[in-house]
Amino acid sequence: MKGEPNTQDDGSSAPITVDLQLSINGERYPVMVDTRETLLDTLRERLDLTGSKKGCDHGQCGACTVLVDGRRVKSCLTLTVTVDDRDITTVEGLARDGALHPLQKAFIEHDAFQCGYCTPGQLCSAAGMLAEAADGWPSVVTPGLGAGTRPAALDEEEIRERMSGNLCRCGAYPNIVAAIEQVAR
After folding, report:
1. Average confidence score pLDDT of the chain
2. Domain containing residue 157
3. % of the chain exceeding 90 in pLDDT
C-alpha cells in the first residue's frame, strides 16, 4: 500500500540498501550497504580492513579515526552513504610502495604504543592534524588566535590539543607526542 512503511514479517523496518563506489586507500570497492551502516562497520565487516578499531562506538575515543578527503573523521559516527565516491584513507593506506609513513616510523622509534589498540586511530589523526597545521588551521591554544593566525610551530602543547580527541588507555601520550613532534619538524 502506498505510504506504508517498508516492514518485515516481524513488524520491524526493513533495511534500505544502496549501491556505492568507495575509494579506499587508492582502490575502488563496489559495495551495497544498509543506509544506517557506519563507515567503521563497512570497513571492518564488509571489506576486511580491520585496522580501524571499534573502541567506544560513540565517537569519544578516536580508535576508529580515518581520513576522508584528507580530513579526520570518526568512522563509528560516519554513515557509509555519506562517503560515496570520496577519498578514504585508513591506517592500511598510510604506507606507500612498501615504505612506512613517516608517522609510522616515528611511532616505532619512540615506542609510541603499548597495547596498540588506539594506534591506527592515533596515526590517522596525526596525519590529518599535520595536514591541518600545514594548511594554517589554528587550534584553541595557538597564540594570538584570531583571523589569519597560523600556528608558528607544533610544540607539545599544540600537539596535545590537536590530538585530544584520541585516547590511549595505556598512557603512551608522551611518546605519541614525541613521535608527532619529530615528524612535524
Report:
1. 91
2. 102-184
3. 78
